[in-house]
Design brief:
The protein is an alpha+beta fold. 23% of the residues lie in helices and 27% in strands. It has 13 helices and 17 strands. The strands form three sheets. It has a seven-stranded mixed beta sheet, sandwiched between helices. A seven-stranded mixed beta sheet has the order 10-11-12-13-14-16-15, sandwiched between helices. The chain has a three-stranded antiparallel beta sheet with strand order 8-9-17.
Length: 511
């Protein structure tokens, strides 16, 4: 019997909770599937597109696209299919239907999903529905130990054709741009990759163990020594103590969500001066000398920290990122990520020089109206306190962004999209519509525009800016058990290349 799809209703909450319980058991950690008050709000306040699937009147599936006022980005979360109804294409059908509904409003430019890579099934589900691979986020979530997530996005018609061009990026992003060219179909060959001399970088002593099998993903990266400071030439820098703020001073962590939100809105009062899709900062890291405030979405349960924004600008944390990372690690976050405009070469270099690795590229992430505030406009010398700073790049208060993994959902190996920090559990991979199972619908990228989706001519002269996700983890990265599909293989190669260039000086790499 074919399942019938309906919008979620308040009276469905009890059955929805039961569905998530049957899939994941006790202790489900995500409010979307366990907290009746949160579920009621999402169903009634208009910020979520929530579909349920029923067979014979019994609720057997669920999928959600989260949105927020003022943002043109959505996130696919909460995709769950009852164990007795997997393998028939329902996960794919729910995914396509809920995304079509979200795009039909005309208020979204893209929807993205973070997908666990324990099996390839969830990757096939989103790709069949028009999602494109954007990168890998190693150790981004704590489930059964640290797990890697894959980032995918689906775009409204015409969005990618209206990207703002980028003339120059740091050379260390070249492998990621090449992978994105293959994964998304964007030609970055004309971008200048010449790089300024690298600043000394604080690097841990590491080894990379590579044993690439037929799947191309049998790789482990592990720490085996004490941290040390390394210069651009690979030489030890005994004069730079690891973990020290080279600019002096300590960093204080204030984890008071209500205060942090008020302070954040005081510093960033204009909606167009903020860019943190589906993120709300709940902590602020303040330099002892007051030169910057870094706002973060800190999640000790998931073991992650997303740097949402920095005042006065991301580049202001130069020399202090080691201390900042040590501070959030003590607060329970082993994984830190940041989202920066691809056009902001200076801020990118600050993070790259502090051991952050380019992990994903989100093309056309941010829409800038023709007459609106341009996040890659002029830079006032007072914004960063840097007399003589070059103009023609992003204003400081605009360049911090929401990192790649917003709260509320990662597509799971178990349900092709269960949200949040998921309990583990091995289930039949056919639930995720592995190749050969019924797809239930035509791939999104083959269908043309769904009714109501914005067309290219609707976009006028608006332009879309590319963003880069950079990440850093203090725990071992192990790709040996990752199920990386062929579409993601270029991103795996790009990450390994960037990691090696960051953490292994050339004299130590044997050929």
């Amino acid at each position: 019997m074919s399942a019938v799809l309906h919008p979620a209703r308040v009276q469905d909450i009890a059955e929805l909770r039961q569905l998530y319980f049957e899939v994941y058991g006790h202790g489900y950690p995500v409010p979307l599937g366990s907290d009746p008050a949160v579920m009621r709000r999402l169903i009634t306040d208009g910020t979520a597109h929530w579909l349920t699937a029923r067979t014979g009147g019994v609720l057997v599936g669920s999928a959600v696209v989260l949105t927020e006022p003022g943002s043109r980005i959505g996130k696919l979360v909460g995709l769950a299919v009852h164990p007795g109804h997997r393998g028939g294409g329902l996960a794919s059908r729910l995914t396509g239907a809920v995304c079509d509904e979200a795009f039909a409003t005309g208020r979204l430019d893209s929807v993205y999903a973070t997908v666990r890579v324990v099996t390839e099934g969830p990757q096939h589900v989103v790709v069949r529905n028009g999602f494109r691979p954007l990168g890998l986020l190693p150790n981004a979530v704590e489930v059964d130990g640290c797990e890697t997530l894959a980032l995918f996005a689906r775009y409204a018609d015409g969005v990618l054709a209206h990207r703002a061009p980028v003339a120059h990026v740091p050379e260390r992003l070249s492998a990621l741009l090449s992978a994105a060219g293959r994964g998304v179909g964007i030609d970055y060959s004309g971008v200048d990759h010449t790089d300024a001399p690298d600043a000394p970088c604080l690097l841990p002593d590491r080894q990379v163990h590579t044993d690439v099998g037929a799947g191309g993903a049998d790789v482990a990266v592990e720490a085996d020594g004490a941290d040390r400071a390394v210069g651009a030439d690979g030489a030890d820098r005994a004069d730079v103590p690891v973990g020290a703020d080279r600019a002096g001073g300590q960093i204080e962590l204030i984890a008071a969500p209500a205060f942090v939100r008020r302070r954040f809105l005081e510093l960033f009062p204009r909606a167009d001066a903020r860019f943190f899709p589906l993120h709300t900062p709940n902590a602020v890291l303040v330099a002892g000398d007051g030169r910057f405030e870094a706002y973060a979405d800190l999640d000790p349960v998931a073991g992650s920290c997303a740097l949402v924004a920095v005042h006065p600008c991301p580049a202001a944390v130069a020399g202090a990122l080691e201390t900042l990372i040590a501070t959030v690690t003590r607060a329970g976050a082993d994984y830190v990520e940041a989202l920066l405009p691809l056009a902001d070469a200076e801020a990118l270099r600050v993070f790259l020089d502090s051991g952050f690795v380019p992990s994903a590229l989100y093309p056309a992430m941010r829409r800038v109206p023709e007459t609106g505030h341009d996040p890659v406009g002029d830079l006032d010398r007072d914004q960063c306190g840097e007399p003589g700073s070059p103009r023609g790049r992003a204003p400081c208060h605009d360049r911090g962004g929401a990192p790649g993994r917003p709260p509320g959902g990662d597509l799971d190996r178990d349900q092709c999209g269960e949200p949040g920090r998921l309990p583990g559990g091995d289930l039949d991979p056919n639930q995720c519509d592995e190749p050969g199972s019924p797809r239930g619908r035509t791939p999104g990228h083959d269908r043309g525009g769904a009714p109501g989706r914005p067309r290219a001519e609707d976009l006028g002269r608006d332009r879309f800016h590319d963003y880069v996700v950079l990440s850093r983890t203090s725990r071992q990265i192990d790709f040996r058990s990752a199920a990386v599909s062929p579409l993601l293989q270029p991103y795996l190669g790009a990450y390994l290349s960037a990691w090696t260039a960051t953490y292994l000086p050339l004299p130590e790499v044997s050929r």
